[in-house]
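Predict the holo structure. Ligand: fructose -6-phosphate.
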Amino acid sequence: MKVIVCKDYAEVSKEAYKVMKEVMTSKEEVVLGLATGSTPIGLYQEMAKDYKAGNVSYKNTKTFNLDEYVGIDRNHPESYYTFMNTNLFEHIDIDTNNTILPYGDTAKDCADYEASMSACSIDLQVLGIGGNAHIGFNEPGTSFDSLTHIVDLQEATIKDNARFFDNDMSKVPTQAISMGIATIMKSKKVILIASGANKADAVYGMVKGEITEVVPASILQNHADVILVVDEAAASKL
Ligand code: F6R
């Protein structure tokens, strides 16, 4: 695992974009795995900025997102579908027919999503990390063999995400559909970005801890091509 420690969030976003640009310019038809949450917003801004400068095009790019809440409408302001459109897709030249997010709550929805991904293979998977070391919405205890599945969100995650729902935990969906850990591990390259002291324990567990399902991100120690880009606060326990 390659670890890049940056001074702050702005630098994390710029370093992450360097990795993204290298992949984007390495071949004609790139498949990206994308994340939501606060952390990738700076990376997405860098992508939009460089696209507007005419340096990169997403015309032939296909994207798969990690996850989506269960039980909220796609057009809800806090759905991940809305998040991706407002934070990235509206600002680049991607064909929205090629921007694919999981949706639904049945085993068939999960199998269909998995099948749509296995038709191609993800060149670069962008990940954030939860304070409890979740990746995607794979909470501690999720099997390393998991494929796309329906997840019950843990209280810690609901609490973390309440900031997007008027700080009201009762408004946060309690379930999500998420790529599984085995799905994530199939990506050719992974970049995990983290910022802030509240991620320091999770980052430590991911990099230096035992590889255990109690710390979902620790499985990334077994992936051949992972780049971790963190700020000093998130790296403080390494
Ligand atoms: C989002 C996702 C989550 C987040 C994680 C960190 O698609 O899969 O694993 O990456 O919860 O979220 P932030 O970046 O908001 O701290």
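The mean pLDDT is 97. The helical segments are 9-24, 41-52, 80-87, 107-118, 155-161, 181-185, 200-208.
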